[in-house]
Amino acid sequence: MFVEMLRSCSYLGPMFLLFLLPFLVRPFAASLEATTNPSYIQCSRFSHCGGLPNVTISYPFRLLQSPDYCGYPGYELSCVENSLTINLEGQNYTVKNINYDDRLLEVVNSDFLGNSCPHSFTNTTINSSLFDFSVNDSNVTVYLNCSFPLSGDLVQIPCTNNLFGKPNSYYKVEKGASSFLGGCDLTAVLPLFDSAANSLNISNSTFAADLQQGFGLSWVNSAPWCKDCMDSEGICGYNSTAPTAPTCHCPKSTALGSCPYYDRAGLGHFSRRKSTIIGTTASAAFSLFCISLCFYMGWQKSFYRIVTFGKKSNKEVVSIESFLKKYSSTSLKRYKYLEVKKITNSFSDKLGQGGFGAVYKGSLNDGRLVAVKILNDAKSNGEEFVNEVASIGRTSHVNVVSLLGLCSEGCRRALIYEFMSNGSLEKHIYSEELRINLGLDKLYQIAIGIARGLEYLHRGCNTRVVHFDIKPHNILLDQDFCPKISDFGLAKLCLRKDSILSVADVRGTIGFIAPEVFSRNFGVISSKSDVYSYGMLLLEMVGGRKNVKLYAEHSSEIYFPHWIHEHFHESECLREIGVTVDTEEMAKKMILVGLWCIQPVPGDRPWMSKVLTMLEGSVDDLQIPPKAFSSSP
């Protein structure tokens, strides 16, 4: 109705429009106060637990009953009967406090609460990719039902005689690593705040009460962008399809880093009265602007286009700009779109087309050749752009493609890479002529180079990267056939060691996706998922064909990994795939390593560092692995 009134304004007199002004103002002002983003609403609902009214539950934590996008995977809390708990490696701990400034979670073993003497003791174990023990913790080692009498610096536990029927149960307070003593039925290490540990050193009379003081955990997942998000009236969150992105849930939209200026009139720091004043002022100016337009413009369609407000693309532009200012490397040069157009000679030389856009050949002012990827905004939603910049913008390795620059101008986004004159590995292994010219010895060196690049991404760079789309098409070859891992649009970043990753939707390339990505029954998703893809890549390099052959004389030949597993020791079968006497040892190493890498259970696959050792060692040191499974995902 509002739009129809505007469309007909060219037929109305100025006095009548002034009469309509209050009615135009009122609904527009109200709309500015509305909170319409479901993510913002849902995460706001589950921010407290009754037993801890002064503790706000926010990123990286979330309550189990809240949606996944409210917190980082692994930091789920439970609120049952007004008690806030967290499960760490199968043991429940009651949360006493959360200090977001110091990133400190204060917890106590739930079994210790309400007992004058603890009835069970278990080792305290944590997932080091999520938590570290606090520097303010000491270790209390408990020795139960020991065969030796009290001695040395051991202190007797006062209440265990009634529980276990034996008086020989002790504890020892240590600041560093715990000691192990033989001759006891159970030894358990319990972290404890230093203040409570000092009390135990003075006297054992308050043993149970001191254990109930608990201990501290510092969480690993630091998010410096979260303060900016909260300062802009947003709620920090998580996006499973782009875990590396600084996701900020705003009252009307979800942004990157912080809420745009036009999405800050929600429930955060402004009162309803202030929101109304701001909304009224803005809408009054807007209405006067509309009246002026009505006088000077006759075409309703043009008018409607001008008053269209707050489109998604504008929000994405603001979010991308915020991300680039905070997270892009200073070594990356930023280009204007006209400069990109000049570099590519108006996009005249197209190298290829990918899922998120086209790639063009170009030349910088210094004469260096480059490959320019123009991202398809409709498909990528900015996610691939953020993933690429965040994952390889700060990496430097001979086997990882170099990102030289970027362009983000409005909705136009481009990434500029070093140019690879020999194209992708794909065309060299599936073409019989090119594969023969390249030779298996060169393919073997390429395989080692790819392994080194992956090992660097998983272990060697500042932020560990899991690629999630290793395949021949994404391996580029320079003029010397040195391989470079490229296309990080699906990559995920992990903060520490080999983090367990959460991926909500299955993406990647069929035939190279690890089985755990399809079904968690196989195990958790981690860098071992890249190892699987690398194994499939190795087998295709040796076989010179895709692992799944749709047209074959025998059903056993349809899936190459099974065929090669069955015929590994038959030299004539190796000859069928072009393996000669001189290259047989290299081929066998690539086959065996590939078969180990595609084991269905992630824990049975080697790390990339082990893969390198296997490839560079002797084939006599390698065993043939168990057969994987009957079909490939």
UniProtKB/TrEMBL annotation:
Principal localisation: membrane
Domain Protein kinase: 345-619
MF terms (GO), sorted A to Z: ATP binding; polysaccharide binding; protein serine kinase activity; protein serine/threonine kinase activity
Entry keyword annotation includes Transmembrane helix: yes
Superkingdom of origin organism: Eukaryota
Binding site for ATP: K373
Listed GO CC annotations: membrane
Localization of this protein: Membrane
Protein name in the entry: non-specific serine/threonine protein kinase
Lineage: Eukaryota, Viridiplantae, Streptophyta, Embryophyta, Tracheophyta
